Amino acid sequence: MQSVLVKLVALFLATQAIGLVVGSSLIADIESGQMEQPTVFTDNPDDPVNALALIGGILLFTLLLLLFMKFFKGAGLFRLFEFFVVFTASIIVFSVFLPGLAFLFAFELVALRLLLPENVSIRNLAAIISVAGVGALIGISLGVIPVLVFLILLSVYDFIAVFKTKHMVKLAKGISNKNLAFTVAIPTKEHQFELGTGDLVLPLVFAVSVMNASIVTYPFFIVPALMVLAASLIGLLFTIGWVSRHIGKALPALPPQAVLMIIAWLASKAIGF
Questions:
Q1: Confidence at residue 98, expressed as pLDDT on a 0 to 100 scale
Q2: Maximum CA pair distance of the chain?
Q3: What's the pLDDT at 74?
Q4: What sign results for the dihedral spanned by CA atoms 248, 254, 258, 261?
């Protein structure tokens, strides 16, 4: 279990580091006028309606996934959606690190997933890059208050979906069985540990939003984001530790992550960030 935790922390840190670099680059592009302010639903990033729109989108998307899993037993449609997400998200990331070659590298990443679908390293790479791109983009599209509303509502939904309706457990198992880059995989001798990308992307969304709204300038504007991410990692490790001690039982990772991230954000505000 210790080796799994070490690899998990490494994956978490790598994902968040790439995402923060991408997020800071997008923030700079917006401030310089090279990029227009992206939006989610309304033109105002600080409008809480954006959080409600995201929740609605997630509920609809979850319903569609459950229907696809019931009526389409194969992984074809899921694979096509994965390729679309990986391609579009990786363009965002590669545009920051490899400007001018973003399209080519995004295409190559999708091609590798197609040609080597069982390769765990390529799958994890695709998941990490996708999370970094999606998290950074959503993070600069939302103000801190909508993100807070989004996290709270999603935590409540996560609790209901795991403990009441239990459809989230079914969905997680279904996605894991289809070998998609919507989870990161850590193989062990006993089994393969799977972590949903939602547990990686949501902390990044909050961190990038906090970084974008920070009242301090570069490079200190990254401090509150790092505090949020550190709190998120503690919450994630708590959840994994609990599940490892209660084999066969599920515990949603987001609620403890959200509570600790909000506390960390309030602490950053209290000390002047």
A1: 94
A2: 53
A3: 63
A4: positive
- The per-residue pLDDT for 224 is 94
Q: Please tell me the distance from the alpha carbon of residue 13 to that of residue 163, in angstroms, as a whole number.
A: 29
Close Cβ partners of 78 (under 8 Å, ≥ 6 residues apart): 68, 175, 178, 180
Question: Mean pLDDT across the stretch 245-270?
Answer: 88
- The angle at the Cα of 46, spanning 45 to 52, to the nearest 5 degrees, equals 85
Long-range contacts of 28-36 (CB under 8 A, 24+ apart): 30/140
Q: Strands (DSSP E) along the chain, which ranges?
A: 183-187, 192-196
Query: Do 158 and 252 contact (CB within 8 A), yes or no?
Result: yes
Q: Give the whole-number percent of the chain exceeding pLDDT 90.
A: 62
> Is the CA virtual torsion 256, 196, 148, 134 positive or negative?
positive
Q: Is 33 left (phi over 0), alpha (psi -120 to 50) or beta?
A: left
Residue type, 272: G
- What letter represents residue 118's amino acid? E
Position 248 scores a pLDDT of: 66
CA gap 215, 219 in Å, rounded: 12
Average pLDDT over residues 189-215: 89
Question: HSE of 227 in the Cβ direction (CA atoms, 13 Å)?
Answer: 22
DSSP-based three-state secondary structure for 192: strand
Predicted pLDDT of residue 190 = 75
* Residue type for position 88: T
pTM over 0.90: yes
CA distance 40 to 252: 26
What are the beta bridge partners of residue 185? Answer: 194
